[in-house]
């Protein structure tokens, strides 16, 4: 399920959703100057990542879902494992974790969004090569 050909492979390796070879982002998520900036075309298969203008605005839905998941995970962990941590400390930890994970969530939301629309195609690189 985590191997090549699955969406999770593209997501966890930050590679092209179609060929899963070419890189997706200009840089890693914590290079804050270029955080979340996407390369225009996949360097390996030529896929244009931004399907249409504004395509990546949709990633906001994914970002929201990730934010909720993160909050619920923290809240459940506090209640199950650290019930002695006070409410204000919990809020502070939630804010801290949210800030620290923000660049990663931002990048993840974009690559997850792209993976909802593009599918793995192992022929993609060959076709791209023979067309050029
Ligand atoms: Zn590609």
Written description of the protein model:
- The protein is an all-alpha fold and 132 residues long.
- It has helices at 7-13, 59-81, 87-117, 124-131.
- The chain has one domain (7-125).
- The mean pLDDT is 94.
- Bound molecules: zinc ion.
- Zinc ion is lined by residues 16, 18-19, 21-22, 42, 44-45, 47, 124.
User: How confident is the prediction overall: mean pLDDT?
Assistant: 94
Task: Count the domains.
Answer: 1
Query: How many E-type strands?
Result: 0
Instruction: State the end-to-end CA separation.
Output: 33 Å
Q: Could you tell me which ligands this complex binds, including any ions or cofactors?
A: zinc ion
Structural class: mainly alpha
Q: What's the gist of this structure?
A:
This protein is mostly helical and 132 residues long. The chain has 4 helices and no strands. It has helices at 7-13, 59-81, 87-117, 124-131.
Highlighted features:
52% helix; binds zinc ion; 132 residues; single chain; elongated; mainly alpha
List the helices and strands and how they pair.
Elements (H helix, E strand, L loop, with lengths): L6 H7 L45 H23 L5 H31 L6 H8 L1
The structure holds zinc ion (ZN).
